[in-house]
Specification:
The complex is a heterodimer. Chain A is an all-alpha fold. Chain A starts with a helix and ends in an 8-residue tail after the last helix. Chain A contains 16 helices and no strands. Helix content of chain A is 70%, strand content 0%. By secondary structure, chain B is α+β, with helices and mostly antiparallel strands. Chain B has a four-stranded antiparallel β-sheet with strand order 2-3-1-4. Classes of the chains: A mainly alpha, B alpha+beta. The interface between A and B is large, with 69 and 72 residues.
Chain lengths: 453, 185
């Protein structure tokens, strides 16, 4: 078929690989002693983590009065960070589940790392509400269990309880999905390594996997089912996060556009984070044959699409406020764009709406350095988006006598830095001990040894 | 003599043919079935599409586990939310009705997904006997790397090792080995 040839973009994996070469390429970077750059990176991320630990210990011991919050701005930095990190996780599930259902074979090169990123991002996200509780040792009160206080049950009508269930389910499912995908690769590692503790660990976690096709058949069914369950789950998670805001009566929060707006923003921010990390991993771990310009191009196109959705959401909010003829609503949006915190609004627009427009050009998409810079801009922009939504809506509410400003304390900044430290440390350890590319899946998309179609 | 007799009853003879290419294993598997031999299993480094048809395997029934347990989880959660909020200790929250069914939907959905996914994975792992720390019994040491192993069970007396090996080699088998085992791998 001539049309099929015309749209074919060549092989997914470059370099005419055979399954054996894939195993060697991916496993050998785990078997080498790490490069000095890895040690430098982990020292850097470890110090960020240490700073965060000190800050967290201090604020838990002293109380959350160490934050810059006041009576008017009751939510600021911590919830911004929470929403930011949950959003980062969403791209991993998009790549592993949604693109799997859409039969996008290019996902096989990036899904392992993206799913790992999801897990680490959700861990970072979960820390913030935990710290915000003030008494995190009572966190188990969020769970509905028979207790000596009544039993006093949790309030299932509260979006914050929905959020607790959504985030904990999301973490569990993402972890299980990731681990199920890892079982065959753990077996590959086990059969390759020389006797030693790493072989024993790989053997333990590979569950006696022996590549039986009868098992593969059920395995593929499980994978499909998990993808089918994770797809609505990922939509529900950020929808529920947006309900934390949308079910309140604050102008700028109380809108029906929030769920789709949050989901699109989450995928947008997560995809840019995946791309930032994969561009570094590709360079430092020499994975250019696996993560090609075609993969980067596909992810850039997702950025353009989701960035477009986010831009439309920004515009729709203004039109809705104008059309509602509600002066509180109108004021909230004028205040965002022209109030005392307008600089954060324009950082958001510049980074999220303007910078991704560069990706329309093929020359930009195939220039890795420029793509990297754009993804960093989007990461910054998406953090500011959450800051804008949360802080600018709160700081000038219905009563002008309540109006106030907000500035973070160094404790809050150190906690944010610490969460990046945690995320990067976990990611670096992942690159060191787990195959960063799903070998079994990549072997399935090679053209080697297959009948020509 | 008696001991030999029990051994021959408990043990099976397997023929293991190793292939290097996906296309060869697909063709050889179909050919084994065409010739009426019994395939114990095929071992591959990645899921080879079309092998289920070549081996004539029935589709997995795990979707039923997923559906049933997802439904059970969701039903349990709706009942639980109703019971805690409206029966066991009703609390007036902003004048909302005791039985706030629409507000129970999000948590019900999450619990449904959790039940469905975890039970599917658990059923898969127990069903295929994949357990932490289990020793893998491998048809070939490189079957998780780049080799495809076709394992034929020698069921009847008419099985001719020489003949079967000959046509397996013709179909691209790089290595053929006979092994006596208590059960398949």
């Amino acid at each position: 078929m001539a049309s099929a040839v015309a749209i074919s973009e060549g092989p997914l994996i470059l370099g005419n690989k055979t399954p054996g070469i894939v195993t060697t390429d991916i496993c050998s970077s785990l078997e080498r002693t790490p490069a000095p750059s890895w040690w430098i990176a982990i020292a850097f991320s470890g110090s960020m983590l240490l700073l965060g630990l000190v800050a967290v210990a201090y604020q838990i011991a002293t109380g959350i009065g160490t934050w810059g919050l006041n009576n008017t701005v009751g939510w600021a930095f911590d919830i911004t960070n929470f929403v930011f990190w949950v959003g980062i996780g969403h791209a991993g599930t998009l790549i592993s589940a949604v693109l799997f259902l859409f039969r996008q074979k290019w996902r096989t090169s990036v899904n392992r790392a993206a799913e790992a990123m999801t897990i680490f991002a959700v861990i970072c996200a979960g820390l913030f509400p935990l710290i915000h509780m003030g008494r995190p040792w009572l966190a188990h009160w969020m769970a509905p269990y028979p207790n000596t206080r009544g039993s006093l049950w949790i309030n299932f009508r509260s979006p914050l309880v929905w959020d607790f269930f959504a985030i904990s389910t999301y973490f569990t499912i993402s972890f299980v999905f990731w681990y199920v995908g890892l079982i065959p690769d753990m077996a590959t590692l086990r059969d390759r390594l020389k006797a030693g503790w790493r072989k024993r660990v790989a053997g333990f976690f590979s569950l006696g996997w022996n590549g039986s096709f009868r098992t593969w058949l059920h395995y593929e069914t499980v994978y499909l089912l998990l993808a089918g369950l994770a797809t609505p789950l990922v939509l529900s998670v950020h929808t529920i996060v947006s309900w934390d805001f949308a079910t309140s009566v604050i102008p700028g929060w109380h809108t029906t556009i929030l769920p789709p707006y949050f989901v699109a923003g989450a995928i947008f921010s997560g995809m840019s984070m995946v791309l930032s990390l994969m561009l570094i991993a590709r360079k430092t771990m020499r994975l250019e044959d696996y993560i090609t310009t075609r993969h980067v191009g596909a992810m850039c196109k997702i950025l353009i699409a989701t960035g477009g959705m986010v831009a439309i959401a920004y515009l729709t909010e203004f039109v809705t406020a104008l059309y509602s003829n509600n002066q509180y609503e109108q004021f909230a949006f004028m205040n965002r764009a022209m109030g005392p915190l307008c600089w954060s609004y324009w950082i958001m627009v510049g980074c999220n709406v303007l910078s991704p427009q560069l990706l329309w050009f093929k020359a930009v998409r195939s220039n890795m350095a420029v793509v990297f810079v754009v993804t960093i801009f989007i990461n910054i922009g998406m953090w500011f988006e959450r800051f804008v939504i949360i802080v600018t809506s709160l700081h000038r509410d219905y009563l002008p006598s309540n109006w106030t400003g907000y500035a973070p304390t160094w404790i809050e900044i150190a906690t944010l830095v610490g969460s990046f430290g945690l995320f990067l440390t976990l990611f670096l350890l992942f690159c060191r001990f787990v195959p960063v590319i799903a070998m079994a899946e990549v072997k399935g998309v090679l053209s080697h040894g297959k009948k020509p179609h | 003599m008696a001991r030999n007799h029990t051994e021959s009853r408990n043990n099976c003879r397997f023929l293991i043919a190793i292939f290097e290419r996906e296309a060869d294993i697909l063709a050889a598997t179909a050919e084994v079935r065409r010739r009426g031999q019994t395939i114990a299993d095929v071992y591959t480094p990645y899921p080879v599409h079309g092998l289920d048809k070549a081996m004539d395997l029935r589709p997995s029934r795990l979707p039923w586990v997923c559906f049933a347990l997802g439904l059970a989880g969701a039903s349990f959660k709706v009942w639980f939310e109703f019971w805690t909020s409206a029966v066991d200790w009703p609390i007036n929250v902003g004048g909302k009705p005791w039985n706030s069914l629409p507000a129970f939907v999000p948590v019900t959905f999450e619990v449904m997904v959790l039940f469905a996914a975890l039970s599917t994975v658990a059923a898969f792992l127990f069903g295929r006997r994949l357990l932490p720390g289990k020793r893998a019994r491998l048809a070939s040491p490189r079957v998780t790397d780049n080799e495809f192993a076709l394992v034929i069970e020698q069921k009847d007396a008419s099985f001719s090792l020489g003949e079967v090996s000959a046509w397996l080699r013709e179909m691209g088998a790089s290595q053929i080995e006979e092994r006596v085992e208590r059960e398949a791998f």
